[in-house]
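Posting this for the archive.
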Amino acid sequence: MNKSTRLALAAVTALGATSAFATNGDHLIGLGAKARGMGGIGIGLGHGAESALANPAMITEVPATEVSFGGTIFMPDVKYDGGAGYQQSDADLNVIPEVSIAAKINDNFYLGVGMWGTGGMGTDYREDTSGTTMQMVTNLQLMQFGVPVAYTSHGFSVGATAIIQYGALDINYNNGSTVGSGIAQDIAFGYTLGASYDLGEAGINGAKVGFVYKSAITMDYKDQLTNATAPFASAGVTGISSELEQPVEYGAGLSYTLGGHTAAFDYKRIAWSDAKGYKDFGWSDQDVFMVGYEFTSELGQLRAGYNYAKSPIKELDWMSNGGAALNMFNLLGFPATVEQHFTVGGTYHLNETLACDLAIAYAPEVEERFTSATLSGPYEIGSKHSQSSVSMQVTYAF
């Protein structure tokens, strides 16, 4: 078994042991410590080999060959109130891997490969004895394998990343009888397209713009969602398929560098309302705004950032179309409700070829209160959710 194969198996094993909490819906705010240190910035500012998914056109900033590997330690804090006060979810520590490689083939062409834990979500109330959480355990895991290819000429770059996505979903609970039959897995295909332009070619030195489009990727999780919602058919929850689609994304970014200072702004839209599965649960589209700053010195870089996106989960009318039960599923099993993220990070160059990257992100607690119902009538449910994370990686350029 060669080194590349061993590395791939190690990353898959690490992801399989986690239920990754993401931040913009079920997506991480950024992939790699550089991007995460700047609030997820990566469309209009390149981060070398890290850029394969954020904007593949930006891998053209790799001077020769670059290898980046590391991961994120994710620490979500989730609580659910089903009428007996807030109960704590035990899904509070996750490890998310990342490996990125990019190389300059000639003055115009660049090629890379990588694998990334891109997100997921989940809760774990199996130890709860309050009787209000149904001891629900949910676990969505997502990993993408990609091959970015890019072309650059006269400041204009285009790129594309072919993606193989692996996903696993498990939903189980006890409402008098056990619901759930183990983990369902699937593999599907997608792509990311990107473009960038160095405005220095037009006389605006230090400025760059970028654009990105990510295709939808439809996963079939073998009746996981269908079986999980079937007991609530009498409450109006019907027509839920087994498919869960990672939605279309598109966005644009701008960065400007003057001396050792770089400021950047990214915007992207995530189309949850058109994605299979998510639209059945009433998720709304997200407008994601990212602001980042980087200071560069001889020793390395310091970074800071801010990311904001309104929660895609909204309260549904509890009196129609199964809204009462769907409100419960969203807050109890899939509480992707955090909205603000404050980040800091940095890079320390050990020598000309080796650097260590670090990022810390914090999402303040958000509380949501919705209306659910039983045969006895409506009642209020709630969710509290905050996050903190540490991302670390090593980058080797040669």
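The chain has four helices and 18 strands. The two ends are 25 Å apart (CA to CA).
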